[in-house]
Amino acid sequence: MRISKALIIAAVLVPSLSFAARLSDGKDHIKLSGKKINTTLDKGFHFSVPSPSGLYIDGEMGSIDPVKKTEKLIQFDATKAGDKPFTISFYVCDDAKTVCESHEVALKIVKKKLVKLDKEKPQMVKPETGAPVAPPADPKSVQ
């Protein structure tokens, strides 16, 4: 009986422990400097200049291109966002050229400071009633 409990615990814990952060997660740094939003990276990483990047204002169509884009800096005009929430997106690659990963960061300027926002996930509802439905189980956590 003791072995079967251990196996059940291992079966539940191992899949959840196998999730790993992406290589470029946490390597970006976003700061408000006057009227500019400067995005930089840790040493060993660079922006993919040919890949798309932009500032997306919530509730509006299209994106605003960066005012400056190099392998070490992506700069956006902060005045375009005003006081509305927005998302900036860009691609980060490691200098060893093994990965390039998409990044999206939700932000808002509040009292001349840049604040990271947690994006709410869309809620699932029943089409016929509009009643909330529990999201499906995460396939990574079910084995």
Characterization of this structure:
This protein is mainly β and 143 residues long. The protein is built from one helix and nine strands. It is globular and about 50 Å long. The two termini are 21 Å apart. Mean pLDDT is 82; it is low at 6-18.
Helix percent reads 10-25%
Estimate the global geometry from the Cα principal axes. Answer: globular
Summarize the biggest pleated sheet.
5 strands, antiparallel
- What is the count of DSSP helices, taking H or I runs of 4+ residues? 1
The SS-based structural class is mainly beta
How far apart the termini lie comes to 21 Å
Q: Strand percentage, roughly?
A: 25-35%
Number of strands: 9
The ordered string of helix (H) and strand (E) elements is HEEEEEEEEE
Extract low-pLDDT stretches.
Answer: 6-18
What integer value in Å does the Rg equal?
20 Å
**Average predicted confidence as pLDDT:** 82
Quick rundown:
With 143 residues, the protein is mainly beta. Helices cover 11% and strands 35% of the residues.
